[in-house]
Each structure stands twice: as structure tokens, then as C-alpha cells.
Specification:
Length: 84
């Protein structure tokens, strides 16, 4: 069964964060295609708007790509290890 684009998309916190970061990076260096689903597109465009508004500044696009990969792999935020 094909998904209807009007259905609500269930995005995890990591997916939302990665889409925001991809939109921000895409505003600086066109790298990613915008997602087709409206829910995912909203997070992507929020990132692009944050760069355009000056709230986010990207100085190292290559490091940003690596960070996005870490977020997508759920390696960020890193778990806090309590030292006893």
C-alpha cells in the first residue's frame, strides 16, 4: 500500500534533527534534495531558514556532513556515562 503524502509521518528525534541539519547545510552548500513529504520538508526548511536568518552559522561543511551522519546513526547526542 502506497503512503499518501497527507498522512502524518512518524519521525524520530534523530531523524528530525538530521533533516534540520541537512536543510541548514543545503542553504550553505547545495548538497541534499529536499524531502517530498510535508512533515520532513518542514524540518528541512526550518534548518535552511535558521541559516538564512543568521541563527545558525556553518563554518566547516565537511565536518557538518560527518556530524549529520553521526546524528542519523544515532551516535549523537552521546550517552552520558556516570562516573562513580
Amino acid at each position: 500500500m502506497a503512503r499518501n503524502s497527507t498522512e502524518t509521518l512518524k519521525l524520530t528525534r534523530h531523524q528530525q534533527h538530521a533533516l534540520f541539519l541537512k536543510g541548514a547545510l543545503d542553504a550553505v552548500v547545495p548538497t541534499y534534495l529536499p524531502p517530498a513529504h510535508p512533515d520532513a520538508l518542514r524540518h528541512f526548511m526550518d534548518g535552511a531558514n535558521a541559516v538564512a536568518s543568521g541563527y545558525v552559522r556553518i563554518t566547516d561543511p565537511a565536518a557538518m556532513k560527518e556530524f549529520i551522519l553521526d546524528v542519523e546513526a544515532e551516535l549523537w547526542p552521546r550517552p552520558v556515562i556516570a562516573l562513580s
